[in-house]
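Quick one:
INPUT:
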């Protein structure tokens, strides 16, 4: 046999190899090659910490500015857009065009228009229906529409845990907004109530569309370009609308200016984090994680604004947090540095 030849100590490949013993484990990676979170996990964490939790402060600060000086919603949007304009200096220093490369300029402008339209619909819906109801309808519609668009346009499937988290977060928002729907007919007509919820739904649909458009953009200065365009197009659309539809107000007390500055800074941070997160994770999962904004707003509503929170609000917030935990835990995967894929 070849394996027993005195001059050639070769294995006999004609014989089956002995079974492996339990002690024969693959060599472990060195200690410096630790586990790193996957791109999906990074995107969801950024959306949670920088998008949802930060955006939860925007609504209460906006309400405080309105209570202090009756600041119109379009004027607040204009102040928010001013915080986006200094990004033009960064683009100029880098030598990048302000409107993006010529081949994707149409899509960058479309992304900015959809974003402005989404926020404008949200602000308009708040004037007709309660702010909490409008926000929850916008978040729920953006999640459902993002899931449908991702399946239709990208053929990107979701796992069973992801679908469970999506349905759970949507159910939590329904628990929050559902019991209050019956009382809306007492103070407003059915036509205006329906119009408010249609605007909130359109705002969520526009949000899901602009996230899909942003995922299709791929050039180095993508994030600062869309950030600047949002401020530019937002000003071009809000300034005429303010003088036509509303009355400008100049805040005189320091509290209003502090609230306006806080809204502008926090909204800018949330905008950048959500735009980055959607390039790393599924848009529907990002929208579901952003439901944490409603939970933060409810907490501030109770502790800061001293407004009552109903028991079904607490129940819905618990369902939303549980759903976010399911989505995050399911996507918590580790990628070992230097691992070779077969």
């Amino acid at each position: 046999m070849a394996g027993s030849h005195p001059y050639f100590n070769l294995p006999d490949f004609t014989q089956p190899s002995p079974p492996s013993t339990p002690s024969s484990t693959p060599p472990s990676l060195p200690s410096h090659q630790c586990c790193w979170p996957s791109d999906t996990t990074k995107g969801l964490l950024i959306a949670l910490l920088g998008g949802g939790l930060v955006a939860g402060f925007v609504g209460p600060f906006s309400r405080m500015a309105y209570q202090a000086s009756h600041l119109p919603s379009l004027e607040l949007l204009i102040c928010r857009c001013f915080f986006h304009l200094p990004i033009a200096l960064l683009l100029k220093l880098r030598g990048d065009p302000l409107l993006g490369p010529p081949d994707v300029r149409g899509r960058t402008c479309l992304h900015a228009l959809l974003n402005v339209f989404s926020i404008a619909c949200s602000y308009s819906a708040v004037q007709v229906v309660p702010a909490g109801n409008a926000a929850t309808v916008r978040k729920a519609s953006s999640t459902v529409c993002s899931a449908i668009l991702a399946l239709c346009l990208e053929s990107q499937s979701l796992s069973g845990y992801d679908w469970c988290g999506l349905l759970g977060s949507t159910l939590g928002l329904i628990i929050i907004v559902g019991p209050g729907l019956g009382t809306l007919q007492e103070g407003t007509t059915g036509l205006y109530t329906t119009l408010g919820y249609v605007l909130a739904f359109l705002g969520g649909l526009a949000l899901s569309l602009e996230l899909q458009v942003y995922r299709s953009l791929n050039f180095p200065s993508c994030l600062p370009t869309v950030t600047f365009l949002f401020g530019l197009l937002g000003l071009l659309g809000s300034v005429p609308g303010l003088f036509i539809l509303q009355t400008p107000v100049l805040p005189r007390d320091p509290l209003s200016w502090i609230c306006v500055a806080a809204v502008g800074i926090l909204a800018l941070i949330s905008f950048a984090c959500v735009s980055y997160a959607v390039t790393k994770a599924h848009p529907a999962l990002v929208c579901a994680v952003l439901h944490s904004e409603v939970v933060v707003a409810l907490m501030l509503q109770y502790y800061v604004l001293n407004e009552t929170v109903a028991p079904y609000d607490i129940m819905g917030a618990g369902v939303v947090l549980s759903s976010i935990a399911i989505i995050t835990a399911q996507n918590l995967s580790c990628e070992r540095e230097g691992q070779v894929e077969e």
